Structures are given as C-alpha cells and as structure tokens.
Amino acid sequence: MVFDPHRSRKRNPLPHELIDNSSGVKDRSFSFEHRILAWLLAAGIAVCCPCLLLLHRLGLTRLEIAAFTCLLVGAYTQLARLFFKQLLRPLQTLANIIAAIREEDYSFRARRGRRGDTVGDLTLEVNALSSTLQRQRAEVQDALSLLERVLTSMHSPVVAFDNATRLRVINSAARETFALGASDPIGRTAAELQLDQLLALPDQGLYPGAATLESPVFKTSAAIRWSVRRTTFRLHGLPHTLLVLSDVAAVLREEERLAWQRLIRVLSHEINNSLTPISSIAGSLARLTERLPLDAREDFERGLFVIEDRAASLNRFLQAYQRLAHLPAPTLQAVSAERIVTSTAQMETRMPLNLVVGETVIMLCDPDQVQQALINLLQNAVDAALAHEAESNTRALVTFTWTVTAAEITFVIEDSGLGIEDASNLFVPFYTTKPKGSGIGLVLAQQIASAHHGRVAILSSKTKPGCTATLSLPLSRTIGGR
Predict the structure, then answer these.
(1) In whole angstroms, what is the distance from residue 419 CA to residue 413 CA?
(2) Domain encompassing residue 225
(3) What does pTM read for this prediction?
(4) Residue 359, by phi and psi: left (phi above 0), alpha (psi -120 to 50) or beta?
(5) Does 125 share its domain with 156?
(6) What are 3's strand-pairing partners?
(7) What is the pLDDT at residue 411?
(8) DSSP-based three-state secondary structure for 273
(9) Does residue 3 form part of some domain?
(10) Total of domains in the chain
(11) Which of these three, 130, 161, 195, is where a domain ends?
C-alpha cells in the first residue's frame, strides 16, 4: 500500500524584520537586546553621575576621582553583563525550542521552569506545548500505521485523488485490479492511469472499465462488475476524493446462496414429512406379505423393496443437501498449507497425484472445512482425468500445489481431463454431469470459500487438455467480519 499523507510543504524561513499584523508596516525599532543595553547604559549614567559629583565635593584629587571612577565603571559593567546574560539566556532557550517546534522537532525541553514568575510560567507552557505536540504526532503516526494496515489487508480496491486528479492513496488490491505494475503511480493523474472514467462516476455507480476480463490462457471469461462508493475528505486543507470499489458479483453470489438455503430448507421439510409415513407404511406392509399366496408374495415384496430403497435413497439425498443450509461458521486455527494439502492428497487412493510443494506458510482458517472443499475439487479432477484416460488411453495426471502472494494463498489442482465446455452451471446446486453425482461438491466448496472471504474458480485451458480448479483464501484478514 502506498500512502502519501505528508506531502512536502515549502517552509518559509523566519523573517529578519518583524511585521505588524494589523497594519502591515515593518517595525524598524531597535531590537530587544539593544533596548536592554540602552536601559542599562542609562541606569549606569544615572548611578555614576551622582557618585562623581559626591566625590568632587569631598575634595578628592583628580587622580583619586579617576581611579574611583574606573573602579565604579568596571564594577557596574560586570554587574550589567551578568544581568544581561541572566535576562536573555532563558529567552534564547525558549526561542530555540520554538524554532525546533516549527521544524517539527518536539524533543527539546527548557529547564528550571517554575510557577510564580513570568519567565518560569512561559517555560512551563512551552514545555507543555512540546509534549502535547509530540503526543499528538505519535497518535497521528499510529493512526496512519493502522490505516495503512487496514488498506493493505482490504480486498476491495481503494484509491484517492486530489483536486488536481492526481493519485494520492492506493492499496495493493487496487494495484492488482487496475494492473498498475511495479511502477509507483502516486502523483500521476487519473488520465495517465486511464482511470478518468472511474473518477467521473457518481456514488454507487458501476465501473464500466472492468466489464469483462477475457483470459488469453483460459477459456472461461470472468465478468467483473464494480460498485463504486464515493466520498470526499480534506488533507492538508485540500479536498480529495476517495473511491472504494466492491465486487457486485460477490454480493449476488451471497444472495443466491441464501436463496438456495431457504429453498433447501422448504424442500427438506416437505419431503421428509412425506418420506416418514411412506417408509413406515412400507415396513408394515412388508410384515403382512406372509398372508399372501406365494406367487403374489414375490411381486408384492419386490415392489415394497423398491419403495423402501428409493425412500432411503431420497432421505440420504436430502441429508447431503442439508449440509448446504447448515454449514457452521469457520472455527479458525493456525495451520500450515503443506499439512492441509498433504492430508487431502492422502485421501485420494484411485491414482497417484503429482504433489508439488509450494512456499511454507501458516494460514488462519478452519482446516476441516478447507480440507473438505479441497477434497471436493480433487475428486472432480481425478474423476475427469480417469474418465479421459478410459476414453483416449492417455495417462491420467492430476497436479496438486499451492502458490502464495502478499495477500492470499491459492490452492491449485490441474487435471488432464476433457475440460469444461459450459461453465455457466458449475456452481448451481443440484446440477451435475456425472451419473452418480449429487451436484453439491462445487457449491459446498464455494460456500466454504465465501465463509473464509475467499473464492473458487474452475478454468478450462486453451492450450492443453484438462482444467484448473483454484481455491484462494486471504492470508491477512480476520474471519468473521466484512
């Protein structure tokens, strides 16, 4: 994340001549030191002249008068010099402290300040001002550090422009979304970054610049729609525009998931109410078949067996789908990615897997749920690879690995199957292309990923057979909030 709150500000040096704020007329009077020296000189003359007149009346000789005058002038000069230093030293100290405050250095303090005298009160007040400014600057730095961490961990793109449309704030999610690369975009205009359309959008507008992203590697295209929240703030007295983008598709997926959950609850309730009496009546009728003739008994028992078997199968079917409606919240634990991948790979015994160990990383997740999502993805990959091997006599291959970035970890499963022709129904509950499939594997994986603020993607390659399934989860986000 790049944040530029302390832009360079030109500091004007202290003027050598004082300016009257009320009239703007330059004050050309003597300096404070010169005025003190003038008053000391006037006081010395006022003291020495009466003394010389007194000596003259006492009848002393000129030599005695000259010697006494030199002694008197020397003593007064030393006293005046000491008085001058004692008067100006605390003022010079306070001036240095105020100059340091002006340069944003709040570490200096004046000593020997006490209540009860004017200079002591001023010293204590200046020290208190330095302490207050030092504390406030520390609080501001802590707030900026927290803001930087929050912006860095956000998965929503965040940008801010000043009144000259120059970029001042951007987080890592915005860098990736707008493909700004490694170059520093701070200070560049929206037009240079090709974000002028984004800056012109109203609050809650849809950003048209990222309507469809077609991958040159995968057949699947991802439609990305961004909802833009727009607000203004002031930084260093200048107005700025803050833009926060949110993925509309993620909100729609959440609404779709809730709708399917409600539908599953209703269907489960109604079908269970019918299955219970059907199973009970079929069992009761089975006990009465002994009274029937032998030739009719076999047909009757065969029909009751079909009824009981299909009722039990339908009940298992409903139990599987109820998992979608009652998935518990993630129980977070610190676990290594290698442990999750290794334990998941060990559960697949139909064929050897090409397990590629990635970067060592500790992630915060529910290991049971993440492992279940990976099992579902891995089973689909193995099914596709084995089916293609049986049809074309090509060797089945499934690669299982993970990659790590600054913001997230992505589990990658690649298979050598036929790939996907129509990806529009992949995450629709009850939809399956396998004869014995239930249609909940990918839906459950997507629901687990959403609960961890992650995502699942199934991509079919353009350059080679097979497809790639990915499960991406954040590394630096606390689960449980949005």
Answers:
(1) 13
(2) 149-246
(3) 0.46
(4) beta
(5) no
(6) 169
(7) 93
(8) helix
(9) no
(10) 4
(11) 130
Residue 9 forms part of a structural domain: no
Say if residue 15's pLDDT is above 50: no
- 276 & 356 share domain: no
- What ranges make up the beta strands (E) of 167-310? 167-170, 205-207, 212-213, 222-223, 226-235, 238-247
Question: Which residue has better confidence, 454 or 10?
Answer: 454
pLDDT band, very low/low/confident/very high, at 412 (cuts 50, 70, 90): very high
Residue 197 lies in a domain: yes
Taking the CB of residue 473, how many other CB atoms lie within 10 A of it? 23
Q: How does residue 402 score in pLDDT terms, banded at 50, 70 and 90?
A: very high
The radius of gyration computed from the CA coordinates of the chain, to the nearest angstrom, equals 42
Q: Kindly state whether residues 445 and 377 are assigned to the same domain.
A: yes
23, with CB counted inside 10 A (0-12, 13-18, 19+), is exposed
| Interhelix angle 441-451/248-288, nearest 10 degrees | 130
Of the candidates 353, 371, 352, the residue with the CA atom closest to the CA atom of residue 363: 371
1: helix, coil or strand? coil
Per 3-state DSSP, what percentage of the chain is helix, strand, and coil (rounded to 5)? 50, 15, 35
Torsions phi, psi of 380, nearest 5? -65, -40
pLDDT attached to residue 63: 82
Which of the listed residues 212, 246, 280 is the one where a domain comes to its end? 246
Alpha carbons 229 and 204: distance in angstroms, whole number:
5
Q: Is 226 helix (H, G, I), strand (E, B) or coil?
A: strand
What CATH number did the domain enclosing 339 receive? 3.30.565.10
Beta bridge partners of 453: none
Same domain flag for 377 and 284: no
Residue 336 tokens read as: 């290594």
Write down the residue that tokens 């089916």 correspond to.
387
Same domain? For 410 and 319 the reply is no
Sheet containing 205-207: give its strands across: 2-3, 167-170, 158-162, 238-247, 226-235, 205-207
How many Å apart are CA 268 and CA 302, to the nearest integer?
27
- Structure confidence by residue, pLDDT tens digits, 171-186: 888 887 787 766 788 8
C-alpha span between 25 and 2 (Å, rounded):
46
Average pLDDT estimate for 87-116? 82
The mean of the pLDDT values for the chain is 75
Residue 210: what pLDDT? 42
Among 225-234, 274-283, 454-463, name the most confident range: 225-234
At 44, the pLDDT band (50, 70, 90 cuts) reads confident
